[in-house]
Amino acid sequence: ALVFINVFDQRGWLMRVLKSSSDRLTFERFENSITGLCTDMSISLQVMAYRDEHRALREIVHRVTTIEALAANPGVHPRIEAMERMQWEQTGQFQAALTQILQRLPNASAESG
């Protein structure tokens, strides 16, 4: 395409396209080629969007299926609640340890001064 534009740009291509049948044919071939490439690109973008949409839908179906499986198994609920409590307890322990460390920092700087 760039070669075509450079050649016709040097020859006053607009007037040549309007006046010369060989230039007109070349321009039509160029236009058909560009149109074909644009069509291919459009189809490619549509396929990519379709794939992305289906990937997202598969992820949603997977998550819903997982939630349904958990809901269908009542024995899982107490285990999940226990894991959640344990996580909150660990978070509390980490917060307490961090608080103790932060409380010691001013004392350490006061002792060194």
Largest sheet: none
Low-confidence stretches: none
- Principal-axes shape call: elongated
Quaternary state of this entry equals single chain
**What is the string of SSEs from the N terminus onward?**
HHHH
Instruction: Output the number of helix runs.
Output: 4
Q: What's the helical proportion of residues?
A: over 70%
Give the distance, in angstroms, between the N- and C-terminal Cα atoms. Answer: 76 Å
- Decide which structural class fits the backbone: mainly alpha
Strand content: under 5%
What is the CA-atom radius of gyration, in angstroms? 35 Å
Q: How many β-strand runs?
A: 0
Roughly what is the average pLDDT, rounded to an integer? 80
Can you walk me through this structure?
It is a single chain. This protein is mostly helical and 113 residues long. Helices cover 93% and strands 0% of the residues. The protein has helices spanning 2-10, 13-19, 21-72, 76-112. Helix 2 (13-19) packs across helix 3.
Offer a quick outline of the entry.
By secondary structure, the protein is mainly alpha-helical. The chain is built from four helices and no strands.
Which descriptors would you attach to this protein?
93% helix; mainly alpha; 113 residues
What's the structural blueprint in terms of helices and strands?
Elements: H1 2-10, H2 13-19, H3 21-72, H4 76-112
Helix pairs in contact: 2-3
